[in-house]
Design goal:
Radius of gyration: 38 Å
Helix content: 55-70%
Distance between the termini: 99 Å
Oligomer: single chain
Largest sheet: 7 strands, antiparallel
Order of helices and strands: EEEEEEEHHHHEHEEEHHHHHHHHHHHHH
Shape: elongated
Length: 442
């Protein structure tokens, strides 16, 4: 039986239709269809046959670079079984057509991918982070702090006495972790607000806002112990590396090396915008727990401050959203349409010569207004004065917005599911519900 195919001579891009014949001795002959001219005759044993994969065309490669493309898979398989019997010829085709094998392959690939993401990447990032030289951590921290100082942070406004007292109270934590080279600094948070975070080199930054929000220095000490945990376990670097592994992998697969270089250049931005994983937060929490218990500080101080921080952050976001909604509603109100219709009616009256006493009195009013410009200027200056901040009114507004937010089915059931921190209850149990040894009981 002849095998139909397309012949390529390996020297030019030209192709011709051919027929392949094989005799009883195992010699294969190539004949041009249009001229019936014999192109080549070689033993079938020297012809390399590509594997069968789905309906992809197969190639028969000849010794001098020629090849024949064909889709007659069954005839090729018959020739192979008869003249070159081997288990490996159609192994790929047999496997891909085996339903159970395909299903098993899908499960194995999915399992391997899941294990790589869940265990492989964290393990790799941990190894890399702990083997980076100190110079890399110092540079990452310096560039991050410089970026923050330039874009968001301002010099601290805390008085020297407050800072000195805090550093004095922080001394036990710094002494017990002297190998980490912890250095506490203060900045005015601005847009960042009440916050504290650790940089890879051991710098722990407290904003003025979180210091002012705290009811006691013990609350700030508990936060410091938490941030020291992030430094101790190198969470910042591990988070950056873990996220970068995927980005670098995509860059390598796509060949976009510029993406990899830009990722390194944007390291400070990544570090300032990232959030830690739950496991990292648990490690930092445990570090804080150990320190608080060892130094006989009540555990609840940490969650007390966290609850206030959460309330403030949620309140700020909801107030911004509420103000934006009010502005949009004000712009959508039909006041402009009604005012334009009134002015149109007045123009029509004047065009018809229908002036009355009220129109004249309006002109007199405008004249009076010109004479009293100074009075209007004084009123404007009074209106421009910034009213004092009403803390109670602000708190009442926050409470109302938060209550409305929690009653909103869409936010609580959908957005709330993705935005809420699953560790809230766990953290409360650790720091508040469990009995602890306090200073007073010693």
């Amino acid at each position: 039986m002849e095998l139909q195919g397309v012949w390529f001579d390996g020297k030019t891009s030209a192709s011709i239709q051919v027929e392949l014949h094989i005799d009883d001795t195992g010699d294969i002959s190539v004949v041009a269809v249009d001229t019936q001219h014999a192109i080549l005759q070689v033993p079938f044993s020297v012809v390399r046959v590509s594997s069968r994969v789905g309906n992809v065309p197969r190639y028969l490669y000849f010794p001098n670079g020629e090849k024949c493309e064909t889709k007659q898979h069954e005839l090729v398989d018959q020739w192979l079984r008869k003249y070159r019997p081997s288990f490996w010829h159609n192994l790929a085709h047999q496997l891909e057509t085996h339903t159970y094998f395909v299903a098993l392959t899908v499960v194995l690939v999915a399992s391997f991918t899941w294990a790589t993401v869940v265990y492989g990447l964290p393990a790799a990032s941990r190894y890399i982070a702990y083997h980076l030289p100190q110079g890399v951590m110092n540079r990452a921290a310096t560039e991050t702090l410089a970026f923050l100082d330039k874009t968001q942070l301002k010099p601290t406004t805390l008085d020297e006495q407050t800072r000195d007292q805090l550093l004095k109270d922080f001394a036990p934590a710094l002494t017990q972790n002297k190998d980490l080279h912890i250095n506490v600094i203060f900045r005015r948070g601005g847009a960042i607000g009440a916050n504290a975070f650790a940089l890879p080199d051991g710098t722990v930054l407290f904003t003025d806002e979180i210091v002012q929000l705290a009811n006691s220095n013990d609350e700030l000490i508990s936060v410091l112990a938490h941030e020291i945990g992030h430094v101790k376990y190198r969470h910042a670097l591990r988070s950056v590396i873990q996220g970068s592994v995927v980005s670098f992998g995509v860059a390598m697969v796509t060949g976009d090396l510029s993406a990899a270089s830009s990722l390194l250049a944007s390291l400070p931005v990544i570090m300032t915008n990232m959030s830690y994983s739950r496991d990292f937060e648990r490690e930092a929490d445990n570090n804080s727990l150990v320190f608080l218990d060892r130094n006989h500080i009540e555990r609840h101080h940490f969650v007390d401050l966290m609850e206030r921080l959460t309330y403030q952050a949620e309140c700020s976001q909801l107030v911004i959203q509420d103000n934006l909604k009010n502005k949009i509603k004000a712009k959508l109100l039909p006041t402009s349409a009604s005012s334009s219709s009134i002015s149109a009616n007045e123009d029509a009256k004047k065009s018809e010569g229908e002036f009355d006493d009220e129109d004249l009195s309006d002109d007199d009013d405008f004249a009076d207004a010109d004479e009293n410009d100074d009075e209007f200027e004084d009123d404007d200056s009074e209106d421009d004065a910034t009213p004092p901040f009403d803390l109670e009114a602000h708190r009442a507004q926050c409470d109302k917005l938060i209550a409305d937010y929690k009653d909103d089915f869409f936010h609580t059931k959908l957005l709330g599911y993705f935005a809420s921190h699953p560790e809230t209850d766990e953290r409360t149990q650790k720091f508040k519900a469990q009995p602890v040894t306090t200073k007073e009981s010693q």
